[in-house]
Amino acid sequence: MDNEPSYKDKKVISIGVVSELTGLTERKIRYYEEKNLIFPQRSNRGYRKYSFSDVERLMDIADQREEGVTTKEIKHELTIKERKEAKKKMIKGQLNAQFGVQKK
């Protein structure tokens, strides 16, 4: 159950709904995907599916773009952030393995 994604991370929202929620055009959303700023899943029929976390990220991207930040700078910032989060997760896992309570 721990590996199950939270409701925010489940990819269930269509690109049309994401466009309505964010105010971004579908073309702009696909552009951000091409720039590897957002990573939708694909349905069996090839439709993009987004999560609430993706919607939040797109809104952050749009805000930064309005402030003049380039997509390259945004990607660099996201990469650094993701590395820090991965490192925290790894350390937490190591600590849990070392000091965690074992299930009976």
UniProtKB/TrEMBL annotation:
Residues annotated as signal peptide: none
This protein's name: MerR family transcriptional regulator
Domain HTH merR-type: residue ranges: 12-80
One matching Pfam family: MerR_1
Gene3D superfamilies referenced in this protein's UniProt entry, alphabetically: 1.10.1660.10
InterPro entries: DNA-bd_dom_put_sf, MerR-type_HTH_dom, MerR_fam
Organism: Rossellomorea vietnamensis
Domain of life, source organism: Bacteria
Keywords from the UniProt entry: DNA-binding, Repressor, Transcription, Transcription regulation
Stored SUPFAM superfamilies: Putative DNA-binding domain
Molecular function via GO: DNA binding; DNA-binding transcription factor activity
